[in-house]
Every structure is written in C-alpha cells, then in structure tokens.
Write a structure and sequence with these properties.
There is one protein chain. The chain has 183 residues and is of the alpha+beta class. Helix content is 46%, strand content 17%. Strands 1-4-5 form a three-stranded antiparallel beta sheet. A hairpin with a 2-residue loop joins strand 4 and strand 5. Helix 2 runs antiparallel to helix 3. The protein is elongated and about 130 Å long. 8% of the residues are buried. The model has no long low-confidence stretch (mean pLDDT 87).
C-alpha cells in the first residue's frame, strides 16, 4: 500500500469542541427602526399561479364549448325535424279541405278520413301539437290574425274562424295558425 492509501484509511482525528463558556446576558438591543420590507415575490410561484389560472380558464372555456356544441346539436335535430314537418303540412291542409267538401261517395270520404287520422297520429307521435280552433282565445305568439270581426255576441279576442291550423314542436312554432279574430 502506498502512503496515500494509508492516510485515507486512517481515521481523521475529530477536533475537540471547546466547552461552552458561560456568558453574561447582554441587555436587549433596541431594534433599529423597522422599515416595512415587502417580501420579494417568488418568480416560480408567480409563474405557477399564472399557469394555474390559464389552466382553469382553458378548462372553463372547453366546458362552455362542450355545452354550446351539445345545445347546437340538439337544436339542429329539432330544426331538421321541424323542417320535415313543415314540408308535410300542405298534405295536411289538402286532406282537411277534402274533408270539408261535401261528397256523395261514402268510401271516398272514409278513405280521406282514415288518411287524415293516420297523418295526425304520425304527427302527434313525432311530438307535434296541433292548435287553433274556433272559440279559443287569441294569442299573438301562436296565432296570425288575418281578419278582424266586430261582433257583440263574441268575447274579446276570441277566434271566430280558422283558415289554417297551427303546429308546434315542443316550444318551437312550426307554423302559426291563420285566424279571424272578434272584437
């Protein structure tokens, strides 16, 4: 073994620590006038807070986007459904006119009644509500008044005659009822 290796193996003597001397207590020093020192902001903490705030905003923005997309998806389904129903309404109107015409052929009348009943069944199955009947109260959010009648025997804003029925899908008006209103 070399001399250096021997020195490495030998324990190093620990320095003796001197015994603590007894000190006489010193009178308390008056603190110099304290100047309010603002703690220095930690740049890492500021960066963390900024990133955390950015993350929260991004999460909220994504949540709003998801809700808005879901709402638009639901509305597009309702809009497509109402457009399809709107295209079927001329068939309803023609069947209603055919039912109101006098005819001698009972089989013809029965066929038109069955066809109309089936169409109404399909529409109600799709969630369509048919409104606008004589005697109902006029509501400008549901009815389109095309004629006015002054009649003492009728009530205020009473529907006298219906030219076209109205159709509603949930809260959406597919077609306003075209009516004549009294008083």
């Amino acid at each position: 073994m070399s001399k250096k290796e021997k020195e490495k193996k030998q324990p190093i003597p620990e320095a003796e620590t001197p015994a603590p001397e007894e000190k006489t207590p010193e009178p308390p020093k008056e603190a110099p006038e304290a100047t309010p020192e603002a703690p220095k902001p930690d740049p890492w903490e500021e960066k963390y807070k900024a990133l955390y705030d950015s993350h929260l905003r991004l999460a909220a923005e994504y949540d709003n986007f998801r809700k808005r997309s879901r709402k638009e998806q639901d509305q597009s389904y309702t809009n497509g459904k109402s457009d399809a129903i709107l295209k079927l309404l001329p068939i309803y109107d023609n069947l209603e006119r055919a039912l109101n015409q006098p005819t001698q052929d009972a089989a013809y009348k029965k066929g038109v009644e069955l066809t109309m009943a089936e169409l109404v069944k399909i529409l109600t199955g799709l969630g369509v509500e048919i409104f606008g009947s004589p005697g109902d109260s006029f509501d400008p959010q549901l009815h389109n008044a095309v004629m006015h009648l002054e009649d003492e025997d009728r009530g205020q804003n009473e529907i006298v005659q219906v030219f076209q029925k109205g159709f509603k899908l949930g809260d959406k008006i597919v077609r306003f009822a075209m009516v004549q209103v009294a008083n």
